[in-house]
């Protein structure tokens, strides 16, 4: 009897091993329709052993494995059923949406739906009479001639054009450019511009941003860059005629007003300048024609000129050079054993660098040569004031506290500098009457006084300035 029990347990042990093998193969093999079920495989295995069921631990393990397999199979079937249901619902929703869109497009009889677009009359607004303007009236309104306007439209028209849809007719690129230029020139309220051009208030805001981005993307690199090659020679020759040698441009800063409302998230106190109004700083390099060759805008009004310069790309470009020069070393001149590089000039608010010369402080006891150097350099730097005056007189949005955040305002400033260069290069003259209203505005928003930079130490730049100071006539005759 004991031997039979041991034989039965051995057979059941072999059977359990067989069951585990079958179960593991079932989990690894993919499930295909029409295959023999696991239960059948288990029964076949049991019959092949030719044993009768016994109430033992191994028989209970067989039952547990069969139950777990059935539960797992049911869970898989439920997951598959839910997945197929979700796919069906998504497809049905997409089909219904496409069907509704198709039906609406068929029965649409007009493109100007009152649900989407407000019906605005275009008969009595400003834009309807623009084509009747003569050249003088056109330039008075948009600050550019018709030829310059057409040129700008050709350059950025494709970037500001919008696609025609079934819901509305897009605003044509010509009107978009006119809206932006009129806002740049007048800085009127969005509501006023909306009525004048027959568009929505939010549309005016969006158009100004779109045109600004298009100008920066399409025209910034072409019309705003430091001089090089023949252009550099022309700039140096022009400044030499102004009695200052080895000069490739003048650098300066000005403050552009911004509204404190737009600076609520950007620590508005940092934008308060010494005059007590909020502003962002524009740093610009100007050539002899009062055109901008490098601009850097956006720093808060409380920042010093030296700090703005140290954070600008211009400073990085100059300091990254192995010799510390901003312009080609081949243009340098050797005087009394000192190499005089091509450099920029600026006021005393900037640090003294080999690539940036500045005048002497009038607070110091100066020699006659130093007085002459300071006067000559300051006279050559006057092109910076001329450029800023024309920039703000033509694009008067730079004279008003606009409700634009600092990041977007800096883009507007740079875009106005690009437009200024295009007008100057194309001979689109600046009219004196454009500065008529800037006098009152300047008295209200007076520019902060220049703060001299006192961090200069004796360095090679001081040697270069001293050599230029006492050999100015020699350099002019070189």
TrEMBL record:
Top-rank lineage group of the source organism: Eukaryota
Keywords: Hydrolase, Metal-binding, Nuclease, Nucleus
A Pfam match: DDE_Tnp_4
Location in or out of the cell: Nucleus
InterPro entries per record: HARBI1-like, HARBI1_dom
One term under GO cellular component: nucleus
Coiled-coil region list: none
Start and end residues of each DDE Tnp4 domain: 252-421
Record carries keyword Hydrolase: yes
GO molecular function: hydrolase activity; metal ion binding; nuclease activity
Cofactor(s) listed in the protein's UniProt record: a divalent metal cation
Family: Belongs to the HARBI1 family.
Protein name as annotated: DDE Tnp4 domain-containing protein
């Amino acid at each position: 009897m004991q031997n039979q029990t041991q034989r039965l347990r051995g057979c059941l042990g072999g059977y359990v091993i067989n069951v585990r093998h079958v179960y593991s193969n079932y989990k690894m093999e993919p499930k295909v329709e029409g295959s023999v079920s696991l239960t059948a495989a288990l029964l076949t295995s049991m019959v092949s052993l030719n044993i009768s069921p016994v109430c033992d631990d191994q028989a209970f393990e067989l039952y547990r494995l069969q139950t777990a397999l059935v539960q797992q199979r049911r869970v898989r079937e439920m997951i598959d059923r839910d997945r197929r249901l979700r796919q069906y619902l998504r497809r049905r929703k997409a089909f219904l949406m496409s069907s509704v869109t198709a039906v609406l497009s068929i029965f649409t009889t007009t493109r100007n739906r009152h649900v989407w677009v407000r019906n605005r009359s275009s008969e009595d607004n400003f834009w309807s009479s623009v084509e009747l303007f003569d050249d003088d009236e056109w330039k008075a309104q948009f600050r550019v001639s018709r030829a310059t306007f057409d040129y700008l439209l050709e350059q950025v028209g494709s970037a500001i054009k919008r696609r025609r849809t079934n819901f509305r007719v897009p605003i044509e690129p010509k009107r978009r450019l006119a809206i932006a230029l009129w806002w740049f020139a007048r800085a009127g309220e969005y509501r006023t511009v909306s009525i004048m051009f027959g568009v929505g208030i939010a549309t005016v805001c969006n158009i100004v941003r779109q045109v600004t981005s298009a100008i920066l993307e399409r025209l910034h690199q072409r019309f705003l860059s430091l001089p090089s090659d023949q252009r550099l020679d022309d700039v140096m020759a022009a400044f030499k005629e102004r009695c200052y040698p080895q000069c490739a441009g003048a650098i300066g800063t000005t403050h552009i007003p911004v509204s404190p409302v737009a600076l609520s998230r950007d620590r508005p106190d940092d934008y308060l300048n010494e005059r007590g109004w909020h502003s962002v700083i524009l740093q610009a390099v100007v050539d002899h024609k009062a055109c901008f060759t490098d601009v850097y805008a956006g720093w808060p009004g409380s920042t010093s000129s030296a700090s703005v310069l140290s954070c600008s790309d211009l400073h990085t470009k100059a300091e990254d050079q192995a010799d510390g020069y901003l312009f080609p070393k081949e243009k340098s001149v050797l005087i009394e054993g000192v190499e005089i590089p091509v450099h920029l000039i600026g006021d005393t608010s900037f640090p003294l660098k080999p690539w940036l010369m500045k005048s002497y402080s009038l607070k110091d006891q100066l020699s006659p040569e130093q007085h002459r150097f300071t006067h000559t350099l300051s006279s050559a730097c006057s092109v910076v004031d001329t450029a800023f005056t024309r920039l703000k007189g033509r694009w008067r949005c730079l004279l008003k506290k606009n409700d634009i955040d600092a990041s977007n305002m800096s883009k507007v400033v740079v875009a106005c500098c690009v437009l200024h260069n295009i007008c100057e290069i194309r001979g689109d003259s600046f009219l004196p009457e454009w500065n008529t209203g800037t006098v009152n505005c300047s008295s209200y928003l007076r520019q902060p006084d220049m703060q001299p930079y006192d961090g200069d130490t004796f360095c090679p730049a001081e040697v270069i300035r001293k050599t230029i100071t006492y050999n100015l006539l020699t350099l002019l005759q070189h």
